[in-house]
Amino acid sequence: MALHLSSAAPACFAVADRRARSRKVRAVVPGDSATLKAEEVVEEKVKLGGSDLKVTRLGIGAWSWGDTSYWNNFEWDDRKMKAAKGAFESSIDSGITLFDTAEVYGSRMSFGAINSETLLGRFIKERKEKDPETEVAVATKFAALPWRLGRQSVITALKDSLCRLGLDSVDLYQLHWPGIWGNEGYIDGLGDAVEQGLVKAVGVSNYNERRLRDAYEKLKQRGIPLASNQVNYSLIYRSPEENGVKATCDELGITLIAYSPIAQGALTGKYTPQNPPSGPRGQIYTPDFLIRLQPLLNRINEIGDSYKKTPTQVVLNWLIAQGNVVPIPGAKNAEQASEFGGALGWRLTGEEVDELRSLASDIRPVVGFPVENL
């Protein structure tokens, strides 16, 4: 993930009216995943941890929006801008209203063309001009850069993000990764943000079990719940299951937000050994890796066919079936966002969930984001 130094606060003002009435969404009827059919599950919003914030069971990641260092083949133009806008609109139309961004996504310091927060704020504003009752939940993140010290650095960065977003508050504010130092001050800053009414809920990202417990306890002393931990989690990257993070989230009532839930496209089936991903992803999901992945992809396809679902929808549903998990796949266009919506409203059986995990266990995992081990 690219890093950058947050610029000085721009001369801008929050413009969104967050008092608009919320749009009603579908309600959930929970049930036994082993007996449910695709058409029998009705989704409801889920609470993030012990907070009062409710979000859709699936969100959209905006890492690629405006980025030219990892995504978009190192270029950004009006066509890609329109595609990102289409992804936003299609997500809303599909009932997915949680959007996750960060101050470092698409930033100039990370060789981005335009900040992802700026784009998301623009899309929200334009949508609300057409439909004031549009409901959007915004999550963004603080970059724990080494020269950022103390609780005030969190508040300063948050206010910069609010300016780029054009909002007076965000729904979820997260520490993007643990700092090399200064982590207690960062947690204090999250608490201050809640008490100042700048956020509805706070979370962390890329936190291991020990850091997760420390952050939870420190916020608990102020009567503030730690709502979430956003980590890399997919069918072929199950470190949260192996390192205690998933179990700790379940124990403490912290929602696990799963980024890269379709393994940056590797689990969609669109890449083959003859057609690997372009750019930096091609160094991770190599032809050799894709050859080893094929038996799992074949079974995912077979299961998808039985539900009339795509491989992407199957692997996202696999994550949702783990419980206490909100996946946030990245959407670069309307077609992708619309497809993600098809992961909701049904459940894999318990046997299918176990079978896919077993098949995936034969695949050597890819390397994750190194800060997970700080």
Describe the structure.
The chain is an alpha/beta fold and 374 residues long. It has a single domain, classed as TIM Barrel. It contains 12 helices and 10 strands. It has helices at residues 78-93, 116-130, 151-165, 183-195, 209-220, 239-242, 245-252, 281-284, 287-307, 311-320, 334-341, 350-360, and strands at 46-47, 54-55, 59-61, 98-100, 137-142, 170-175, 199-205, 226-232, 255-259, 325-327. The strands form 2 sheets. An 8-stranded parallel sheet has the order 3-4-5-6-7-8-9-10. A two-stranded antiparallel ribbon has the order 1-2. Helix 1 runs parallel beside helix 11, helix 2 (116-130) crosses helix 3 (151-165) and helix 9 (287-307) runs antiparallel to helix 12. It is globular and about 50 Å long.
Please render the helix and strand layout as text:
Elements: E1 46-47, E2 54-55, E3 59-61, H1 78-93, E4 98-100, H2 116-130, E5 137-142, H3 151-165, E6 170-175, H4 183-195, E7 199-205, H5 209-220, E8 226-232, H6 239-242, H7 245-252, E9 255-259, H8 281-284, H9 287-307, H10 311-320, E10 325-327, H11 334-341, H12 350-360
Parallel strand pairs: 3-4, 4-5, 5-6, 6-7, 7-8, 8-9, 9-10
Antiparallel strand pairs: 1-2
Helix pairs in contact: 1-11, 2-3, 3-4, 5-7, 9-10, 9-12
